[in-house]
């Protein structure tokens, strides 16, 4: 079976500059002077700078006038200068602090008198505390709503990158099914998946790879042991990769051998629940309506109700992008209206305690015409990847 992943180009500096200007306009509309980004996915989103979290603040200030400052320890100056001068990054003044100095006081000097600062909602608590001490708690506010409102609406370039990542992972899932053999350990499967992701152009898969056999599939995030595969075991594999920082996250569940009649029945319910969720994704409808589409169908079959087992123990889906789990979510209580550009997982797992779990996970994005699958859902239990008689 031939493999094709749709082409996708890295995010350009022009797109990042447009993101910065959009955020600057949001800051002005809210009467805020700046947004501080910690070493999070939002730093990468706006500036192109990827940085590891540590006890030392390295981040960026986006000002309401659209300018950008970087803040880093003095000994990291040369490295930050190199990273921010890369072709797809955003240039800005680099402010440095020595080990005995406060980066929070340094950030405060860049704000106008009385100016209020929004803070990256994913930044560590010590960053929030340091800024609150330097500025006063009344001048520090949550930047999360501003960031989510912008990052949740993906551009065509982002959707292309997400599509490529997901196509790679779906092919890795297909290859893995054919590679499985009795006695193989979950750790061996994970190594295989990582190697295949890399071979196809993804950034590996070992950072996120859940492999469950048998009754371990009852646990939404898998068991803790290194289990060996046995004939007629249920197999649940949930994995993903990265392309230019954008995530895939696809789950397939099938049987290594002959499915029981009960497993076949539940698998079909899971497939239909995923389809009901997709059908419920209407532009302008609240995110929670997608969860209701799957959950109401399952409740009507006697599962649940709510999160009770046997049934669906978690939300139907989550947003995805530079973070594998992003807001908004397809969950009861999230009334965010569905808009074009939003991207979600669709994974209304079914758990039968003490027996097995079934999760089928694909992703979709909202277009101007409604939801569009990134990857086609599992074809059938006996032919998960739609390969026909050759499967």
Automatic annotation (TrEMBL):
Cross-referenced PROSITE patterns: PROLINE_PEPTIDASE
Signal peptide: none
Creatinase N-terminal domain location: 19-152
Lineage top rank: taxon: Bacteria
Residue ranges occupied by any Peptidase M24 domain in the UniProt entry: 162-367
Keywords, ordered alphabetically: Hydrolase, Metal-binding, Metalloprotease, Protease
GO annotation terms (biological process): proteolysis
Example GO molecular function: metal ion binding
Name of the protein in question: X-Pro dipeptidase
Organism: Caulobacter henricii
Lineage of the organism: Bacteria, Pseudomonadati, Pseudomonadota, Alphaproteobacteria, Caulobacterales
